Amino acid sequence: MDTRTKIAGVELDSYVLNASGVRDTTLEELEAIAKSDSSAIVMKSCTIEPRKGNPEPRYMRLQLGSIQSMGLPNLGYKEYVIFSSQLKKYNKPIIASVAGSCADDYREMVSAFQDSDVDLIEVNLSCPNLEGKTLAYDFEQTGEILRAISDLGDKPYGLKLPPYPDVYHIQVAELIEKHGVSFITLINSIGSSLIIDSETEKPVIKPRGGFGGLCGDYIKPIALGNVRAFYELLKNEVSIFGVGGIKSGTDAFEFLLAGADAIQVATTFEKQGPSCFGRINKELIEILERKGYNSTQKVKGNLKYL
Ligand code: RRO
Known about the structure:
The protein has 9 helices and 16 strands. It is of the alpha/beta class. The strands form 4 sheets. Strands 3-16-15-10-9-8-7-4 form an 8-stranded parallel β-sheet. The chain has a 4-stranded antiparallel β-sheet with strand order 5-6-14-11. It is globular. The two termini are 28 Å apart. The model has no long low-confidence stretch (mean pLDDT 98). The structure holds ligand RRO. Ligand RRO binds next to loops. The site of ligand RRO has 16 residues, from loops.
């Protein structure tokens, strides 16, 4: 079974890798990902300065996923530039993720990673847990950030995006095409979600009055819808990482049909640890074999219609 895939020309040995944000902040955690069956090493979104993140409790497992408001705890981008050289020996693609608060921040961090050992740069415009708005919902600011980072080097960069309702799909696709974005990661957690414990009459996480990003099974149909919509608009010009509620080979296969070039696992990685990547990949291969396909590429985007 050929499960190789490419994101922006960078080859991945399998369809399954980790998503930014889970167990990927320290070198020790990143080395655990490097030694797992994840087909790449995606690092935690980083900022100019180190951050402790939001007060606890800030992550809550739920029956069908999780809600969190981590608040970007990370070691500062300079550490991740160093980590990229330390992780190179594992011979796996390394993906940086940057999260700034303005175009200058993005320019400084993307510029540093252009001169590092990472293979791809994910520009996170969709953290839902900071004060102020989610950047990717402001198209003017998104355009400004894209203009600031497009001339900094040859490494492909992509955007981590929030879910969009259909009225914005064409506008976002135009921005992506106009600014040379090579890949997109769809979707980030769904911000401004609220889980309430009726017994205690309190939210289940502390920051920002309980508002946080919803993850897991709850968001899979929305992730699939965004992957499909952008796949149809961008065809094969821009690679797509699917993320949101993938816990089995069946989930991964659904994202493959929708048009994702590879999938990233977050909540299930938090719950099950690094063994989840090999398991999901094995289950995906079993489904492909049972259906008589000999590669993921043959299936990508081939959703059938009723
Ligand atoms: O750290 C976080 O709170 C966080 C980030 Br940067 C993100 O992109 N998505 C998310 O759900 N949480």
